[in-house]
Amino acid sequence: MSLTLVALIILSVLTAGMIFTFIRLLRGPSLPDRIVALDLLVTLLIGVIATYAILNDQSAFLDVAIILALVSFLGTVAFAYYIERRV
């Protein structure tokens, strides 16, 4: 298998996961479910960025993925703090 074919398979699986996660984000029965779905959506987006960076040999996109992961982590902590205070 060539790298391009493997990358296309990975991107299609990640895209399918993003579609299902986005549906959960819209329909989520509660706020914590939506927060987890948003966090998963960002994680899948990081996977897409990393796959694109490997496919096109662009290491700068890996830096973007790392920064996005850090911002996502801080956002998840902030949402968890908000939910804890709300209860």
From TrEMBL:
Main location: membrane
Keyword Kinase attached: no
Family matches, as InterPro entries: MrpF/PhaF-like
Signal sequence region: none
One GO cellular component term: plasma membrane
Bilayer disposition of the protein: Multi-pass membrane protein
Name of protein: Cation:proton antiporter
Classification of source organism: Bacteria, Bacillati, Chloroflexota, Anaerolineae, Anaerolineales
